[in-house]
Design goal:
This protein has 362 residues and is an alpha/beta fold. The chain folds into two domains: 139 residues; 208 residues, Aldolase class I (TIM Barrel). The protein is 54% helix and 9% strand. It is built from 15 helices and eight strands. Strands 1-2-3-4-5-6-7-8 form an eight-stranded parallel beta barrel, surrounded by six helices. Strand 7, helix 13 and strand 8 form a beta-alpha-beta unit. Helix 1 packs antiparallel against helix 2 and helix 13 runs parallel beside helix 15. It is elongated and about 80 Å long. The termini are far apart.
């Protein structure tokens, strides 16, 4: 609704000072959102975050255009006469890194939206309300971006990691099992299919990615980095014979979770140095999913509990009957496959192991 509609002031009667303020803050906010959007697109490689920020820019334009047409705003622009163009602080002249760039521009966008909201109230209260909603949405987006900028932050509260393998589902649909596992308390889902050909793998990855996205749970692809890229997975898990962790990080970007299977303290240290977000510690017990890998036992779990400073997930033959010993050894995160996805009641099996973890605290 443009100014000049019934009950509103005509365009020519609007305060030029207000129009200049709105024009300046529209430009400021739009530029800042674009800086953050490009970070989400090119650095994080997150299509969801970049799409969200792009839509916010378009909604910003719609809201401001309902206050006054862009041509009117531009007509009152006076860059040469703007006393603020020569005012700056030392903070504005330096950035300590890419994270600092993003943080500064999020603040800039939030401040610009607040100014737009306040001055829009004098012309079009409904536009002001739209700008207020946009500002609150940016607060939420900021939290998501902060988590994506540091993948390890997303793992701090993630205790139960469930691996989905179709051969163990007893004929049930992968989407159904995944939803049930999440309902029971799974904090992360990994799609692990060693034998499936790429076309089928890609189709299933897309479907499980949507299930996890709807539930707000990170989705990890095992081994196949190209599929992780295509479906915009939250991360990739690699083993000792897969793509090196450092290459996985370079390929997927700074905002993705990179997990690495390890079987010894030396492998753990190498994975950490290569930039892993988390490591798998195991197999603790013999497991049919890794029949050729000898169990590492509880000694390696104890080592990880005392020495590993990034999140680690004990894995391998974990079930309610074995979980207590592993948790007593110091594990606070468990990665589980068949004990959950092959259970008669998937949600109950997940809830049982999640409760066991909770009893041992953080």
């Amino acid at each position: 609704m443009h100014a000049g509609a019934p009950g509103e002031p005509a365009i020519e009667n609007l305060d030029p000072q207000v129009l200049r303020i709105i024009d300046a803050n529209y430009n400021r906010t739009g530029e800042a959102l674009r800086v953050v959007e490009d970070y989400a697109r090119f650095a994080l490689g997150s299509s969801a975050a970049s799409e969200r920020l792009k839509l916010m820019r378009h909604r910003l334009l719609q809201a401001v255009s309902s206050v006054a047409p862009r041509a009117v705003l531009v007509s009152w622009r006076d860059t040469a006469g703007d006393v603020g163009t020569h005012i700056s602080t030392e903070f504005e002249k330096t950035r300590t890194g890419i994270g600092d760039v993003v943080a500064a521009n999020i603040r800039r966008a939030q401040e610009g939206l607040r100014v737009l909201e306040e001055y829009a109230k004098t012309i079009d209260p409904r536009a002001a309300e739209s700008l207020e909603k946009l500002r609150y949405e940016l607060y939420t987006a900021e939290k998501g971006l902060v988590n994506e900028m540091d993948p390890c932050r997303r793992l701090l509260d993630a205790r139960l990691y469930v691996l989905v393998t179709t051969s163990l589902l007893r004929g049930r649909k992968p989407e159904e099992v995944t939803r049930d596992a999440i309902r029971g308390g799974a904090d992360i889902i990994q799609m692990r299919e060693k034998e499936m050909h790429d076309g089928e793998f890609l189709d299933l990855a897309r479907r499980l990615r949507e299930v996890c996205r709807d539930a707000g749970v990170p989705f990890i692809v095992n081994d196949r980095a190209h599929v992780a890229q295509i479906v915009d997975a939250d991360g990739l898990h690699v083993g000792e014979d897969d793509l090196p962790a450092a290459e996985a990080r370079r390929l997927l970007g700074a905002g993705k979770i990179i997990g690495v299977s390890t079987h010894s303290p030396e492998q753990a240290q190498a994975a950490i140095e290569a930039g892993a977000s988390y490591i798998g510690v195991g197999p603790v017990n013999a497991t049919p999913t890794k029949p050729t890998t000898a169990p590492v036992g509880l000694a390696y779990v104890r080592y990880a509990a005392e020495n590993v400073r990034i999140p680690f997930y004990a894995i391998g033959g974990i079930a309610p009957s074995t979980a207590e010993d592993i948790l007593e050894a110091g594990a606070r995160r468990l990665a589980v496959c068949s004990a959950i996805i092959s259970a008669d009641d998937v949600a109950a099996a997940a809830a049982c192991l999640k409760s066991a973890i909770a009893r041992h605290g953080t």
